[in-house]
């Protein structure tokens, strides 16, 4: 029995639907889960707030991709605008626009979760079969070194020159054209995103998916979710059409991501011991630019093909970080360089000679690090507050210095920070200038492409929102299956961890029906 | 089109906006005609955004911000966003245009829109690095709106030496295989 994908144009009148499982969200968690549930013969309805877009829609222009494929039409950020949030919002969720970097959950993180959060159930052995299944379906493999672009070559060469190590990236691609446009939707379906893999499989087997269908409220009676209330909201309109979709499921799986998921629970009055939305982690990212004699063309080629995890463990009471390259395209460059006028134009004219290297900070591991908090405003909209605390400030300063040294060692003519008043360096003798610069919120560019936590998993009901089988505490039939269950950040790009946890959760959700 | 617009002005910002509104009412503001019908901004708000865009987007070899219709683009973008976002942007514009708030923050009496270009640049610079978080946040909102609209316009590709998306990818879909770097060619020949 084949299913169907409905868009806003298909739903002009109110709909009332029944099913075994309603999955809210079609990203890394929801897609893998739904594919497993329909395999079990269950009737599954998926609701996705974003639009249904495929390779034929992907123009490789930020003008088109940013408002159509990203949250808040590309404008999501923390409430003070200090941290820009890159998060997908279409069928496939962030997998449609991510940069394809894949890692299994590091053993050191699983060990920390066992020791600090009681997650004995999550071990390298217990997760192995799930990782293997995911890696097979998504063609996750090592990107060949001969295909590394100049932007990533900077990281290889610069890190080696200062005694650091790098490793090749594993990517979920098949038939990749190495174009560099992963962040705008893959135009050749080389990226094995959810809409071309697990969702494709699930629809073939009966999944009914409503796109541009934004869930407003979960109706709870006697400890159970009895109805999911959604409205049709076309992506290019400020207001919903008025058509409503109401789903009455036996089980509700919340896979709306680490920010929208907690916000939906809070809007619905669901807040286990006041912990929903707490412990939200971002892998806060800083960037340092290097200008090279040769053209780098940071827009072409696989966005991320190497990484360095040397600074991941910086000792007690310090936040670790890891290094990757970041692709640069016109709009993201323009909005990330905090200058204006002629100074801004001068940087933009040099972008083809620029390499962008980034450091991603591993938040949530220090005992005192509670990360950020998701709440809702008076209109019920998601609000994210994320204070950049002193231990992060210290790490960001260190990361700036490390990335500057990488650039200089790789041959950069000039290294430039992304401060409000940029610091320029031409040799290591200038490093004290960078060390003396201010760090923290609104001092320099910070962004996040990895949102985690907010409905943290744990064995202790007083410290967690979901149990080790993804069931939300306090309700009988609500399961959370996405990155929001992560009790800390990961120290690696999170997509494969979310895939694997969702693969593991298929059994628990199926058994709950 | 841009990545940062949503903001919360906080108590200090809210108070400034309240006081500043008086100043907006007391002093004249510039009028600039939009080149297409406005969807959410009024003519006063549009004029202030257009002047901010003039200052954000200027330099040798650049087309005029007015010709790129940056302010019209901001209006169109806001029209697709939640109404509360537009309301927050309005607060920023009131703060920027306010003579009373300007006197308090910069020691000058006069609206942004009736100031000289150099004075406008000075205000934006002061906001970017202000000791007040509210003003830094407001600067980021204006910067994100204007720069996002301007540089997402393909007309800007040539100016920054961006060859544009590669051509010929559709052929790779029909016969997918493991392509390697260099198989996809840039759109146009590139300069030095």
Rg of chain A, alpha carbons: 22 Å
Q: What do we call the CATH topology of the largest domain in chain A? A: FAD/NAD(P)-binding domain
* Secondary-structure content class of chain B: mainly alpha
Q: What's the number of helices of chain A?
A: 12
CATH structural class of the largest domain in chain A: Alpha Beta
Overall strand count of chain A = 24
Largest interface, by Cβ-Cβ below 8 angstroms: which chains and how many residues each?
A-B, 70 and 64 residues
**Total domain units of chain A:** 2
If you average the pLDDT of chain B, what whole number results? Answer: 78
Oligomer class? heterodimer
Number of helices of chain B: 9
- Helical proportion of chain A, percent range: 25-40%
CATH architecture of the largest domain in chain A: 3-Layer(bba) Sandwich
* Distance from first to last alpha carbon of chain A: 20 Å
Overall 3D shape of chain A: globular
Query: Biggest sheet of chain A, in brief?
Result: 8 strands, mixed
Account of the protein in words:
- The complex is a heterodimer of chains A (513) and B (192).
- By secondary structure, chain A is of the alpha/beta class.
- Chain A has 12 helices and 24 strands.
- Chain A is globular, with a radius of gyration of 22 Å.
- Chain B has one domain.
- Chain B has 9 helices and no strands.
- The longest helix of chain B has 19 residues.
- The N terminus and C terminus of chain B are likely disordered.
- The chains are: A alpha/beta (513), B mainly alpha (192).
């Amino acid at each position: 029995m084949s299913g169907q994908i409905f868009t806003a144009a298909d739903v002009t009148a109110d709909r009332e639907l029944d099913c075994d499982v309603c999955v809210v969200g079609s990203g890394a968690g929801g897609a893998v889960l739904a594919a497993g549930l329909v395999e079990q013969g269950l009737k599954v309805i998926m609701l996705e707030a974003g639009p249904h877009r495929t390779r034929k829609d992907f123009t490789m222009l930020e003008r088109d991709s940013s408002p159509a494929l990203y949250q808040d039409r590309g404008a999501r950020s923390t409430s003070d605008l200090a941290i820009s949030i890159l998060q997908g919002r279409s069928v496939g969720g962030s997998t449609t626009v991510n940069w394809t970097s894949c890692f299994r959950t590091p053993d050191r993180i699983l060990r920390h979760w066992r020791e600090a959060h009681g997650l004995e159930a999550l071990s390298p052995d217990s997760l192995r079969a799930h990782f293997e299944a995911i890696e097979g379906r998504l063609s996750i493999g090592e990107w060949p070194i001969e295909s590394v672009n100049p932007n990533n070559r900077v990281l290889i060469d610069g890190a080696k020159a200062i005694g650091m190590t790098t490793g090749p990236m594993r990517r979920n691609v098949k038939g990749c054209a190495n174009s560099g446009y992963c962040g705008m939707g893959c135009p050749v379906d080389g990226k094995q995103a959810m809409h071309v893999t697990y969702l494709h499989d699930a629809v073939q087997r009966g999944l009914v998916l409503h796109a541009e269908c934004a869930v407003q409220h979960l109706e709870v009676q006697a400890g159970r979710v009895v109805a999911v209330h959604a409205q049709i909201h076309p992506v290019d309109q400020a207001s919903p059409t008025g058509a409503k979709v109401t789903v009455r499921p036996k089980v509700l799986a919340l896979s709306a991501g680490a920010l929208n998921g907690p916000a939906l629970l809070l809007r619905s009055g669901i807040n286990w011991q006041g912990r929903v939305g707490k412990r939200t982690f971002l892998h806060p990212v800083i960037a340092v630019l290097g200008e090279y004699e040769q053209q780098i063309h940071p827009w072409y080629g696989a966005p991320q093909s190497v990484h360095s995890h040397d600074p991941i463990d910086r000792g007690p009471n310090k936040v670790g970080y890891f290094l990757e390259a970041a692709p640069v395209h016109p709009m993201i460059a323009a909005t990330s360089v905090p200058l204006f006028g002629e100074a801004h134009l001068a940087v933009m004219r040099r972008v083809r000679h620029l390499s962008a290297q980034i450091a991603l900070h591993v938040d949530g591991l220090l005992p005192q690090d509670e990360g950020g908090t998701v709440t809702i405003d008076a209109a019920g909209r998601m609000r994210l507050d994320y204070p950049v605390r002193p231990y992060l400030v210290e790490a960001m300063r260190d990361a700036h210095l490390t990335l500057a040294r990488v650039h200089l060692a790789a041959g950069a003519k000039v290294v430039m920070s992304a401060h409000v008043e940029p610091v320029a360096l031409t040799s290591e003798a200038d490093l004290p200038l960078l060390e003396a610069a201010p760090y923290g919120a609104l001092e320099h560019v910070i962004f996040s492409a990895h949102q985690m936590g907010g409905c943290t998993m744990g064995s202790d009901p007083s410290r967690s929102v979901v149990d080790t089988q993804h069931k939300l505490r306090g309700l009988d039939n609500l399961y959370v299956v996405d990155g929001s269950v992560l009790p800390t950040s990961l120290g690696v790009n999170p997509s494969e961890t979310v895939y694997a946890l969702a693969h593991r959760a298929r059994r628990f959700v199926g058994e709950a029906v | 089109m841009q990545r940062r617009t949503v903001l919360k002005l906080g108590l200090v910002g809210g108070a400034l906006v309240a006081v500043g509104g008086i100043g907006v009412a007391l002093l004249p503001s510039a009028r600039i005609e939009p080149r297409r019908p406005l969807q959410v901004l009024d003519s006063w708000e549009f004029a202030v955004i257009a002047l901010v865009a003039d200052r954000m987007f200027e330099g040798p070899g650049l087309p005029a911000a007015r010709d790129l219709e940056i302010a019209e683009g901001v209006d169109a973008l806001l029209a697709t966003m939640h109404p509360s976002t537009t309301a927050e942007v309005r607060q920023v514009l009131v703060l920027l245009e306010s003579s009373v708030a300007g006197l308090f923050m910069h020691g000058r009496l006069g609206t942004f829109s009736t100031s000289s270009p150099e004075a406008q640049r000075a205000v934006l610079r002061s906001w970017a690095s202000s000791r007040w978080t509210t003003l830094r946040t407001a600067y980021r909102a204006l910067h994100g709106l204007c720069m996002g609209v301007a540089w997402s316009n393909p007309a800007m590709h040539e100016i920054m030496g961006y060859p544009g998306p590669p051509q010929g990818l559709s052929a790779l879909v029909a016969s997918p295989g493991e392509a390697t770097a260099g198989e996809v060619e840039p759109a146009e020949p590139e300069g030095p």
